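Job type: complex structure
Entries:
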Amino acid sequence: MITTVQIVRVRSLFATVMLTGIFSLLGAGWMMTLDAPDVAFTEAAVGAGIATVLMLSTLALTTRRSKTPTGNKLLPLLVVGVTGALLVWATLDMPHLGDPSAPVHQHVAPRYLAQKEIHGHAAQAETGVPNVVTAVLGSYRGYDTLGETTVIFTAAIGVMLVLGGRRRRDDASSKRKGKAKGKAA
Amino acid sequence: METFLGLYNYWVVIFLMMTGFYTVISRGNLVKKVVGLNIFQVSVFLLYISMGKVEGGTAPILVDGQNVAYSNPLPSVLILTAIVVGVATTGMALALIVRIQEEYGSIEEDEILKMEQSDA
Amino acid sequence: MSPVRRQHVILRVVAKLLIPYILLFALYVQFHGDYGPGGGFQAGVIFGAAFVLYGLIFGLERAKAAAPPRIIEILVSLGVLLFAGVGVASMFKGGNFLDYGVLEHDPLAGQHLGILVIELGVGITVTAAMITLYFYFAGRGRA
């Protein structure tokens, strides 16, 4: 939590990015304690590794310092405070952490974990894979995963298109006009 | 007291969420905004994973022959893909920021707006 | 290689020692994902991180020599095609799209095979996408 507050406060963008990396790593540790090793793996590699590198390269291409925030400070704080209070109020209705009778655990998950006679659990009996996360990801929600993969593919193509062109200097707009004229002629 | 302990995890998540939100709406620097979005994103991941936790449960990797309680695998699956998609879209956002810097020479929101208005 | 990079002897030695193990670990995570925690997304990210580390320490040029951008660009789409291809293959075998049960005589083995192949497809796409992102961001500054 302290890390996050510092992220907002520190104006040096370099420090911000470093703190974001630390924040992700802490988040990964937290996920590990919540029994989600698959997710913790990914978060550690992505958040502390690749995202940090990407942000640092962005900083290298732009600036290292952000300006002192101007304008009304109270209004955003008020909006955030009210939203937060509403959300906390909403959690009062939520099932407690780790409660096995919570609605989340009643619907699909028991189906995957149901005991079968031959191979133990349903997920293993139907897919032959003991890691339920992999089984659900690959087989039960195969369409979903295909879609996600396509999103990653699209993002990669998008970055290629946005950054792939030749770098223009500050006189970019004049050059663009010149190009447009050239095309017209 | 029990309410406090049971819901404490959610409250920490909400605090993180609001910190991210505040960063997005109050800071004019575009990189800072992306960082704020990232914080928001991670807090949503943590919310999902918290919901999937079962008391006394273990990671959902099946063991033969024992009666073990497993945590809910479904949130893990959803968030797993969301993290990787998240980094890909963050990359896309940062790419756009780089292009904005090249075009306008600044990544501060108010400066860009000023330039836009003086152009028009 | 710039003289600045030449100075970081410790970083370079440690990276040289670590990168093979990171790659090995990524492969383990990829192909052991059905028994332990792991799978295509995790493995792809770890694999990509290894290349990014290599690029950071030894310079972009050598990273591009190790992973030629042309091949990486092809791999980005190859992964998605592999995934969708498994779906189409199961259709040809008489099942529904992405219904792996029909890929083998035994539906259980078919499911297992299908999951392994699509995880491989996911892994390839994620790896290649991560490397692509890094290449384009790092290459922008000196173009």
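Summary: Chain A touches chain B through 90 residues (CB under 8 Å). The CA atoms of residues 94 and 102 of chain A lie 8 Å apart.
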